[in-house]
Amino acid sequence: MAEPSRQLSDPRELLEGYLDHYREEILRVLDGFPEPEVSRVPSGWTPLAMLKHLAYMERRWFVWDYAGEPIDDPYGDRDSEERLVAGESFEEVKAFYLAQCERSRQVVAKGRLSDRASRIGRFQPPEEPPTLGWIMFHVLEEYMRHAGHLDIARELAGGPEAAR
């Protein structure tokens, strides 16, 4: 998916457009990995574990924090979010990721940028919850950062360089 039109000026359309752009960018970069479940960095994270992290991140910020829907494990089992469960395939993690992205879109569609996050998630009194607009921008920033990480990891793995 290409970047949103340069003619857009509506903040909501820009945020939604760029979120979808980077959601697809993550998958595009992962398509270039010879083995997305193999680590190429000293910390040991894998590109596939990064995709799993992004799925949990979507769910945590939009469903739990913003919409206030109860989630038994908003952070996922930290070990399973950072590391893959034995036998977990790219297709399984990708399906989980795509489901979380779609759920996020549904939640966001019901809100206004100025709406405040719930107090069910991590934002408890006296802390003032952020707005939906702030959350969308924060999630976008996280996507941009991790897309860059994946670009570098893909190059280290010997995959084709990510064309931007």
> Distance N terminus to C terminus?
11 Å
Average of pLDDT: 89
CATH topology: Four Helix Bundle (Hemerythrin (Met), subunit A)
Number of strands: 0
Structural class: mainly alpha
Helix content: 55-70%
Please identify which CATH superfamily we are dealing with: dinb family like domain
Q: Per DSSP, what share of the residues sits in E-state strands of 2 or more residues?
A: under 5%
- H/E element sequence: HHHHH
Number of helices: 5
CATH architecture assignment name:
Up-down Bundle
Counting structural domains, the number is: 1
As a whole number of angstroms, the C-alpha radius of gyration is 16 Å
Tell me the major beta sheet.
none
Protein name: DinB family protein
Question: How would you describe what is shown here?
Answer:
By secondary structure, this protein is an all-alpha fold. The chain has one domain (11-156): Four Helix Bundle (Hemerythrin (Met), subunit A) (Up-down Bundle). Helices cover 55% and strands 0% of the residues. The chain contains 5 helices and no strands. The N and C termini lie close together (11 Å).
